[in-house]
Design goal:
- The chain is mostly beta strands and 144 residues long.
- The protein has a single domain (2-10, 21-80, 92-131), classed as Immunoglobulin-like.
- It has one helix at residues 14-21; strands spanning 2-6, 39-43, 47-53, 62-67, 70-79, 95-104, 115-119, 122-128.
- The protein has a four-stranded antiparallel sheet, with no helix packed on it. The chain has a four-stranded antiparallel sheet with strand order 2-3-8-7, with no helix packed on it.
- The two termini are 40 Å apart.
- Residues 28-33 have low confidence and may be disordered.
Length: 144
C-alpha cells in the first residue's frame, strides 16, 4: 500500500514557527502547522487496517472517499461561536483545522467490502483482501 501525504497546512522550521505563533499580547494561540494526523497501516493475512489518530473529532467530521484505487480521508472543522452583532471584540480567536490523507490501494483490496469505524479518537478503516490475494493454507499435493 502506497502512502501519499497531502497536507493543507504549510510546515515551517521550528525557529520561524515559534516566532510567528507567539502571541505578544499574552493570550493563547492554536498551532495548526502540523494538522495532519498520524496513520498506522497494518497488514494481516486477510486484510489491511488503517488507523488514523484523530482525537476530539466526531465520526460526522470525517469524509472517506474512494475514487478508483485512491482512498482519501479528510476532515474540515470550523468552530465559530454565535455572537451578537452588537458585541465589541478586544480579541476573538477562531479555530479552524482540516486535513487530507490519500492512499493508493493495491489491487489485492476488495473495494466493495471496505468498512470504517470511529472509537476513542481512532478512525479504523478495514480494507479486506480479495479471496485470491489472501494467504492460502499449505497443503500436500499428491503425485499421480
Amino acid at each position: 500500500m502506497t502512502l501519499v501525504r497531502k497536507n493543507t497546512a504549510p510546515y515551517l522550521p521550528s525557529v520561524f514557527e515559534e516566532l510567528l505563533n507567539t502571541d505578544w499580547l499574552g493570550g493563547r494561540t492554536n498551532t495548526f502547522t502540523n494538522a495532519t494526523p498520524s496513520v498506522n497501516i497494518i497488514e494481516k493475512d486477510d486484510a489491511f487496517e488503517l488507523h488514523v489518530a484523530a482525537p476530539g473529532l466526531k465520526k460526522e467530521d470525517f469524509n472517506i472517499n474512494l475514487d478508483n484505487d485512491l482512498l482519501t480521508i479528510s476532515s474540515e472543522i470550523k468552530n465559530e461561536e454565535d455572537v451578537k452583532e452588537t458585541a465589541k471584540f478586544t480579541r476573538r480567536e477562531f479555530n479552524y483545522a482540516s486535513f487530507k490523507r490519500s492512499f493508493n490501494l493495491p489491487e489485492s483490496v476488495d473495494t466493495a467490502k471496505i468498512t470504517a469505524s470511529y472509537t476513542d479518537g481512532v478512525l479504523a478503516v478495514s480494507l479486506p483482501k480479495r479471496e485470491e490475494a489472501q494467504v492460502q493454507p499449505s497443503r500436500l499435493i499428491e503425485i499421480q
